[in-house]
Write a structure and sequence with these properties.
alpha/beta, Elongation Factor Tu (Ef-tu), domain 3, Rossmann fold, Ubiquitin-like (UB roll), 3 domains, binds flavin-adenine dinucleotide, binds FE2/S2 (inorganic) cluster
Length: about 350
Protein backbone atom coordinates (compact mmCIF):
# COMPACT_ATOMS: atom_id res chain seq x y z
CA UNK A 1 0.00 0.00 0.00
CA UNK A 2 1.32 3.45 -0.83
CA UNK A 3 0.59 6.53 -2.87
CA UNK A 4 1.01 4.76 -6.24
CA UNK A 5 -0.34 6.83 -9.06
CA UNK A 6 1.00 10.04 -7.50
CA UNK A 7 3.90 11.93 -9.00
CA UNK A 8 7.02 11.76 -6.88
CA UNK A 9 10.11 13.70 -7.96
CA UNK A 10 13.36 12.01 -6.93
CA UNK A 11 15.44 14.94 -5.63
CA UNK A 12 18.60 15.35 -3.61
CA UNK A 13 19.28 17.81 -0.82
CA UNK A 14 21.67 20.50 -2.03
CA UNK A 15 22.18 22.11 1.36
CA UNK A 16 20.88 22.52 4.89
CA UNK A 17 20.77 25.92 6.55
CA UNK A 18 20.35 26.20 10.30
CA UNK A 19 17.67 28.71 11.25
CA UNK A 20 17.51 28.16 15.03
CA UNK A 21 18.67 25.44 17.44
CA UNK A 22 15.48 23.52 16.53
CA UNK A 23 14.84 24.42 12.90
CA UNK A 24 16.60 23.98 9.58
CA UNK A 25 15.89 24.91 5.98
CA UNK A 26 16.38 21.99 3.62
CA UNK A 27 17.12 23.10 0.06
CA UNK A 28 16.54 20.70 -2.84
CA UNK A 29 18.58 20.38 -6.01
CA UNK A 30 16.01 20.93 -8.77
CA UNK A 31 17.86 22.31 -11.80
CA UNK A 32 14.92 21.87 -14.20
CA UNK A 33 12.47 23.60 -11.87
CA UNK A 34 10.27 20.50 -11.87
CA UNK A 35 8.81 21.14 -8.40
CA UNK A 36 7.21 24.44 -9.49
CA UNK A 37 4.14 25.50 -7.53
CA UNK A 38 3.35 28.82 -5.92
CA UNK A 39 4.18 30.55 -2.64
CA UNK A 40 2.44 29.16 0.45
CA UNK A 41 1.67 25.67 -0.89
CA UNK A 42 2.90 22.49 0.75
CA UNK A 43 4.73 19.42 -0.52
CA UNK A 44 4.54 15.82 0.64
CA UNK A 45 8.06 14.50 1.17
CA UNK A 46 9.09 10.87 1.35
CA UNK A 47 12.21 10.15 3.32
CA UNK A 48 13.82 6.83 4.17
CA UNK A 49 15.06 6.60 7.76
CA UNK A 50 16.73 3.37 8.92
CA UNK A 51 15.31 1.54 5.90
CA UNK A 52 11.73 2.65 6.47
CA UNK A 53 9.92 5.19 4.27
CA UNK A 54 8.11 8.04 6.06
CA UNK A 55 5.87 10.65 4.47
CA UNK A 56 5.16 14.06 5.90
CA UNK A 57 3.72 17.35 4.76
CA UNK A 58 5.86 20.51 4.77
CA UNK A 59 5.05 23.97 3.49
CA UNK A 60 7.42 25.40 0.91
CA UNK A 61 9.66 27.99 2.54
CA UNK A 62 10.97 29.07 -0.86
CA UNK A 63 9.07 31.39 -3.18
CA UNK A 64 8.60 29.66 -6.55
CA UNK A 65 7.50 32.94 -8.20
CA UNK A 66 11.03 34.27 -7.54
CA UNK A 67 12.65 31.25 -9.19
CA UNK A 68 14.15 30.08 -5.89
CA UNK A 69 15.34 26.48 -5.50
CA UNK A 70 12.58 24.62 -3.63
CA UNK A 71 13.07 24.39 0.11
CA UNK A 72 11.21 23.35 3.22
CA UNK A 73 11.88 24.59 6.74
CA UNK A 74 11.44 22.02 9.44
CA UNK A 75 11.12 22.60 13.18
CA UNK A 76 11.95 19.66 15.44
CA UNK A 77 8.99 18.25 17.30
CA UNK A 78 10.24 16.56 20.52
CA UNK A 79 10.21 12.83 19.76
CA UNK A 80 9.11 13.50 16.19
CA UNK A 81 10.56 10.95 13.76
CA UNK A 82 10.92 12.94 10.55
CA UNK A 83 11.45 16.45 11.94
CA UNK A 84 14.25 15.15 14.20
CA UNK A 85 15.83 13.42 11.21
CA UNK A 86 15.88 16.64 9.19
CA UNK A 87 17.14 18.79 12.05
CA UNK A 88 19.80 16.38 13.33
CA UNK A 89 20.82 13.90 10.64
CA UNK A 90 19.95 14.91 7.07
CA UNK A 91 22.71 16.32 4.88
CA UNK A 92 23.60 17.46 1.38
CA UNK A 93 23.37 14.64 -1.17
CA UNK A 94 20.58 12.75 0.64
CA UNK A 95 17.80 11.47 -1.64
CA UNK A 96 14.27 12.67 -0.90
CA UNK A 97 11.03 12.04 -2.80
CA UNK A 98 9.05 15.26 -3.22
CA UNK A 99 5.50 15.46 -4.59
CA UNK A 100 4.43 18.53 -6.58
CA UNK A 101 3.05 21.35 -4.38
CA UNK A 102 -0.60 21.29 -3.31
CA UNK A 103 -2.86 23.26 -1.02
CA UNK A 104 -5.02 26.34 -0.88
CA UNK A 105 -2.80 28.63 1.21
CA UNK A 106 -1.90 30.93 -1.68
CA UNK A 107 -2.75 34.49 -2.64
CA UNK A 108 -2.10 34.62 -6.40
CA UNK A 109 0.91 36.94 -6.33
CA UNK A 110 0.55 39.46 -9.16
CA UNK A 111 2.32 42.79 -9.79
CA UNK A 112 -1.04 44.48 -10.39
CA UNK A 113 -2.34 43.56 -6.89
CA UNK A 114 -2.78 46.40 -4.46
CA UNK A 115 -3.44 44.73 -1.14
CA UNK A 116 -2.79 44.76 2.57
CA UNK A 117 -1.90 41.37 4.00
CA UNK A 118 -2.31 40.84 7.74
CA UNK A 119 -0.42 37.68 8.76
CA UNK A 120 -0.59 35.92 12.12
CA UNK A 121 1.98 33.13 12.55
CA UNK A 122 3.61 31.22 15.38
CA UNK A 123 6.62 28.88 15.47
CA UNK A 124 7.01 26.94 12.22
CA UNK A 125 3.71 28.49 11.08
CA UNK A 126 5.89 31.30 9.72
CA UNK A 127 7.03 29.02 6.88
CA UNK A 128 4.17 29.42 4.34
CA UNK A 129 3.69 33.03 5.46
CA UNK A 130 7.35 33.80 4.72
CA UNK A 131 7.09 32.15 1.32
CA UNK A 132 4.20 34.50 0.45
CA UNK A 133 5.54 37.59 2.23
CA UNK A 134 8.85 37.46 0.37
CA UNK A 135 7.05 37.16 -2.97
CA UNK A 136 4.59 39.98 -2.21
CA UNK A 137 7.37 42.40 -1.23
CA UNK A 138 9.39 41.57 -4.35
CA UNK A 139 6.61 41.35 -6.91
CA UNK A 140 3.66 43.44 -5.68
CA UNK A 141 5.10 46.97 -5.36
CA UNK A 142 1.76 48.44 -4.24
CA UNK A 143 0.99 45.85 -1.53
CA UNK A 144 1.92 45.95 2.15
CA UNK A 145 2.35 43.24 4.80
CA UNK A 146 1.71 43.46 8.54
CA UNK A 147 3.08 40.39 10.32
CA UNK A 148 2.50 39.29 13.91
CA UNK A 149 4.88 36.43 14.69
CA UNK A 150 4.67 34.50 17.95
CA UNK A 151 7.48 32.50 19.56
CA UNK A 152 8.48 31.53 23.06
CA UNK A 153 11.86 33.29 23.07
CA UNK A 154 13.80 35.59 20.68
CA UNK A 155 16.21 32.75 19.86
CA UNK A 156 13.28 30.66 18.53
CA UNK A 157 12.48 33.16 15.76
CA UNK A 158 12.86 31.44 12.39
CA UNK A 159 14.02 33.70 9.49
CA UNK A 160 14.99 36.43 12.01
CA UNK A 161 17.78 37.87 9.85
CA UNK A 162 15.76 37.81 6.62
CA UNK A 163 12.80 39.49 8.31
CA UNK A 164 15.10 42.24 9.57
CA UNK A 165 16.61 42.74 6.13
CA UNK A 166 13.18 42.89 4.50
CA UNK A 167 12.00 45.43 7.06
CA UNK A 168 15.05 47.59 6.37
CA UNK A 169 14.49 47.30 2.61
CA UNK A 170 10.72 47.98 2.76
CA UNK A 171 10.12 50.13 5.86
CA UNK A 172 6.81 51.45 4.46
CA UNK A 173 5.49 48.10 3.27
CA UNK A 174 6.49 45.60 5.97
CA UNK A 175 5.69 45.86 9.68
CA UNK A 176 6.69 43.00 11.99
CA UNK A 177 5.54 42.57 15.59
CA UNK A 178 7.36 39.82 17.48
CA UNK A 179 5.20 38.37 20.25
CA UNK A 180 7.13 36.40 22.91
CA UNK A 181 5.06 34.07 25.04
CA UNK A 182 8.09 33.67 27.35
CA UNK A 183 7.58 37.34 28.23
CA UNK A 184 3.88 36.84 28.92
CA UNK A 185 2.63 38.04 25.52
CA UNK A 186 0.26 36.08 23.29
CA UNK A 187 -1.47 36.41 19.95
CA UNK A 188 -4.99 36.35 21.35
CA UNK A 189 -8.24 38.22 20.82
CA UNK A 190 -7.04 41.40 22.48
CA UNK A 191 -3.77 41.32 20.60
CA UNK A 192 -5.61 40.99 17.28
CA UNK A 193 -7.75 44.03 18.06
CA UNK A 194 -4.71 46.08 19.09
CA UNK A 195 -2.65 44.95 16.10
CA UNK A 196 -5.36 45.79 13.57
CA UNK A 197 -5.97 49.18 15.23
CA UNK A 198 -2.31 50.16 15.29
CA UNK A 199 -1.57 48.94 11.74
CA UNK A 200 -4.32 50.38 9.56
CA UNK A 201 -4.55 48.82 6.08
CA UNK A 202 -2.63 50.62 3.35
CA UNK A 203 -4.93 49.33 0.61
CA UNK A 204 -8.63 48.53 0.64
CA UNK A 205 -8.23 44.91 -0.54
CA UNK A 206 -7.31 43.26 2.76
CA UNK A 207 -6.19 39.64 3.10
CA UNK A 208 -5.61 37.67 6.30
CA UNK A 209 -3.12 34.78 6.61
CA UNK A 210 -3.10 32.56 9.66
CA UNK A 211 -0.81 29.65 10.58
CA UNK A 212 -0.16 28.71 14.16
CA UNK A 213 -1.00 26.04 16.73
CA UNK A 214 -4.65 24.97 16.98
CA UNK A 215 -5.47 27.20 19.98
CA UNK A 216 -4.11 30.32 18.32
CA UNK A 217 -5.74 29.53 14.97
CA UNK A 218 -9.07 29.05 16.69
CA UNK A 219 -8.97 32.32 18.66
CA UNK A 220 -7.66 34.48 15.80
CA UNK A 221 -9.98 32.97 13.20
CA UNK A 222 -12.99 33.47 15.47
CA UNK A 223 -12.05 37.10 16.12
CA UNK A 224 -11.48 37.87 12.44
CA UNK A 225 -14.81 36.30 11.51
CA UNK A 226 -16.57 38.32 14.20
CA UNK A 227 -14.98 41.41 12.65
CA UNK A 228 -16.58 40.46 9.34
CA UNK A 229 -13.65 38.93 7.45
CA UNK A 230 -15.02 36.83 4.60
CA UNK A 231 -13.91 33.33 3.57
CA UNK A 232 -12.28 34.45 0.33
CA UNK A 233 -9.93 36.79 2.21
CA UNK A 234 -8.98 34.49 5.10
CA UNK A 235 -6.42 31.73 4.56
CA UNK A 236 -5.77 29.34 7.43
CA UNK A 237 -3.10 26.63 7.29
CA UNK A 238 -3.35 23.92 9.93
CA UNK A 239 -0.33 21.76 10.78
CA UNK A 240 -2.09 19.76 13.46
CA UNK A 241 -5.77 19.01 13.82
CA UNK A 242 -7.44 21.05 16.54
CA UNK A 243 -7.62 19.12 19.81
CA UNK A 244 -11.14 17.86 20.40
CA UNK A 245 -11.98 17.86 24.08
CA UNK A 246 -15.02 15.70 23.38
CA UNK A 247 -13.14 13.21 21.15
CA UNK A 248 -14.57 9.73 21.80
CA UNK A 249 -12.35 7.00 23.23
CA UNK A 250 -11.35 4.59 20.42
CA UNK A 251 -12.17 0.87 20.65
CA UNK A 252 -8.83 -0.86 21.31
CA UNK A 253 -8.28 -3.99 19.24
CA UNK A 254 -11.23 -3.52 16.86
CA UNK A 255 -11.31 -5.94 13.94
CA UNK A 256 -10.94 -4.16 10.60
CA UNK A 257 -11.98 -5.65 7.27
CA UNK A 258 -12.07 -4.29 3.75
CA UNK A 259 -14.86 -5.53 1.47
CA UNK A 260 -13.47 -7.66 -1.37
CA UNK A 261 -10.14 -8.11 0.40
CA UNK A 262 -9.40 -11.47 2.00
CA UNK A 263 -7.57 -10.57 5.21
CA UNK A 264 -8.42 -8.58 8.31
CA UNK A 265 -6.39 -6.90 11.04
CA UNK A 266 -6.82 -5.58 14.57
CA UNK A 267 -6.49 -1.83 15.15
CA UNK A 268 -4.24 -1.56 18.19
CA UNK A 269 -4.44 1.17 20.85
CA UNK A 270 -3.18 4.48 19.46
CA UNK A 271 -3.47 3.35 15.85
CA UNK A 272 -5.51 4.85 13.03
CA UNK A 273 -7.35 2.61 10.54
CA UNK A 274 -4.61 3.13 7.96
CA UNK A 275 -2.06 1.37 10.21
CA UNK A 276 -4.16 -1.79 10.19
CA UNK A 277 -4.91 -1.52 6.45
CA UNK A 278 -1.17 -1.28 5.90
CA UNK A 279 -0.61 -4.60 7.73
CA UNK A 280 -3.36 -6.22 5.63
CA UNK A 281 -1.80 -4.87 2.40
CA UNK A 282 -5.29 -3.58 1.54
CA UNK A 283 -5.75 -1.52 -1.63
CA UNK A 284 -5.82 1.89 0.05
CA UNK A 285 -3.14 4.39 -0.91
CA UNK A 286 -1.72 7.16 1.25
CA UNK A 287 0.54 10.15 0.90
CA UNK A 288 0.43 12.70 3.74
CA UNK A 289 -0.93 10.77 6.77
CA UNK A 290 -2.21 14.14 8.01
CA UNK A 291 -5.76 14.28 6.63
CA UNK A 292 -4.85 16.93 4.07
CA UNK A 293 -4.28 15.18 0.72
CA UNK A 294 -7.35 12.92 0.58
CA UNK A 295 -5.48 9.93 -0.90
CA UNK A 296 -6.36 7.39 1.82
CA UNK A 297 -10.15 7.71 1.51
CA UNK A 298 -12.49 4.78 2.00
CA UNK A 299 -16.20 4.32 2.63
CA UNK A 300 -17.58 3.08 5.91
CA UNK A 301 -19.49 -0.14 5.20
CA UNK A 302 -20.48 -1.07 8.76
CA UNK A 303 -19.42 -0.34 12.32
CA UNK A 304 -18.66 3.05 13.85
CA UNK A 305 -15.58 5.25 13.57
CA UNK A 306 -14.35 8.56 14.97
CA UNK A 307 -13.53 10.38 11.70
CA UNK A 308 -10.88 12.59 13.35
CA UNK A 309 -10.28 15.82 11.45
CA UNK A 310 -10.51 14.96 7.73
CA UNK A 311 -9.40 18.31 6.28
CA UNK A 312 -9.54 16.96 2.70
CA UNK A 313 -13.20 15.86 2.74
CA UNK A 314 -16.16 18.08 1.97
CA UNK A 315 -19.17 17.96 4.28
CA UNK A 316 -21.13 16.14 1.56
CA UNK A 317 -18.42 13.49 1.30
CA UNK A 318 -18.43 13.02 5.07
CA UNK A 319 -22.23 12.78 5.10
CA UNK A 320 -22.04 10.12 2.40
CA UNK A 321 -19.88 7.89 4.64
CA UNK A 322 -16.47 8.75 3.20
CA UNK A 323 -13.62 8.74 5.72
CA UNK A 324 -9.87 9.36 5.67
CA UNK A 325 -8.26 6.25 7.09
CA UNK A 326 -5.11 8.13 8.20
CA UNK A 327 -7.08 10.11 10.81
CA UNK A 328 -10.02 7.79 11.57
CA UNK A 329 -10.15 5.48 14.60
CA UNK A 330 -12.55 2.63 15.39
CA UNK A 331 -15.39 3.05 17.87
CA UNK A 332 -16.97 -0.42 17.53
CA UNK A 333 -15.64 -3.99 17.89
CA UNK A 334 -15.77 -4.50 14.12
CA UNK A 335 -15.39 -2.01 11.28
CA UNK A 336 -15.90 -2.88 7.62
CA UNK A 337 -14.68 -0.50 4.91
CA UNK A 338 -15.45 -0.35 1.20
CA UNK A 339 -13.18 1.03 -1.51
CA UNK A 340 -14.10 4.66 -2.29
CA UNK A 341 -15.73 3.77 -5.76
C1 LIG B 1 -0.21 21.42 5.64
C2 LIG B 1 0.93 21.15 6.60
C3 LIG B 1 2.12 21.87 6.48
C4 LIG B 1 3.15 21.66 7.38
N1 LIG B 1 4.28 22.40 7.24
C5 LIG B 1 5.29 22.29 8.14
C6 LIG B 1 6.44 23.13 8.07
O1 LIG B 1 6.56 23.99 7.17
N2 LIG B 1 7.41 22.96 9.00
C7 LIG B 1 7.30 22.03 10.00
O2 LIG B 1 8.23 21.91 10.80
N3 LIG B 1 6.22 21.21 10.09
C8 LIG B 1 5.22 21.31 9.19
N4 LIG B 1 4.11 20.50 9.28
C9 LIG B 1 4.09 19.44 10.32
C10 LIG B 1 4.79 18.18 9.76
O3 LIG B 1 4.02 17.61 8.72
C11 LIG B 1 4.95 17.08 10.80
O4 LIG B 1 3.70 16.80 11.39
C12 LIG B 1 5.93 17.45 11.90
O5 LIG B 1 7.18 17.75 11.35
C13 LIG B 1 6.08 16.28 12.88
O6 LIG B 1 6.51 15.12 12.18
P1 LIG B 1 7.46 14.06 12.93
O7 LIG B 1 7.67 12.91 12.01
O8 LIG B 1 8.67 14.75 13.43
O9 LIG B 1 6.60 13.65 14.18
P2 LIG B 1 5.78 12.28 14.36
O10 LIG B 1 6.78 11.23 14.66
O11 LIG B 1 4.86 12.08 13.21
O12 LIG B 1 4.87 12.69 15.57
C14 LIG B 1 5.16 12.49 16.91
C15 LIG B 1 3.93 12.84 17.74
O13 LIG B 1 3.61 14.24 17.69
C16 LIG B 1 2.28 14.47 17.20
N5 LIG B 1 2.39 15.59 16.23
C17 LIG B 1 2.62 15.51 14.92
N6 LIG B 1 2.77 16.73 14.37
C18 LIG B 1 2.64 17.62 15.37
C19 LIG B 1 2.76 19.04 15.46
N7 LIG B 1 3.02 19.79 14.38
N8 LIG B 1 2.59 19.63 16.68
C20 LIG B 1 2.34 18.89 17.79
N9 LIG B 1 2.22 17.54 17.76
C21 LIG B 1 2.38 16.91 16.59
C22 LIG B 1 1.85 13.22 16.50
O14 LIG B 1 0.44 13.06 16.61
C23 LIG B 1 2.64 12.17 17.28
O15 LIG B 1 1.94 11.80 18.42
C24 LIG B 1 3.05 20.68 8.39
C25 LIG B 1 1.86 19.91 8.48
C26 LIG B 1 0.82 20.14 7.60
C27 LIG B 1 -0.43 19.33 7.73
S1 LIG C 1 -2.91 10.09 3.49
FE1 LIG C 1 -3.38 12.15 3.03
S2 LIG C 1 -5.36 12.36 3.84
FE2 LIG C 1 -4.76 10.42 4.49
Amino acid sequence: MSGEGRTVLPLTISGIRRETADAVTVVFHDPGGRVGGSAGRYVIVRVVIDGEEHRRVFSLSSTPELGQAPSITVKRLPGGRVSTHFVEQAGAGDSIGVEPPEGAFEVGIDPTNRRTYFAFAAGSGIVPVMSILRGVLALEPRSAVRLAYGNRRPEDVIFAAELEELQAAHPDRLAVAHVMSGQGNRIDRRFVDRFLATHPPAAADVWYLLCGPPGMNRVVEARLRTLGVMDDRLLVERYVPPGREEAPVPYDGALLRMEGHGSSSRVAAGEVLLDALDRMAAPVFYACRSGVCGTCRARLGSGRVDPGVPFALTEEEQDSGMILTCVARPLSAEVVLRPPD
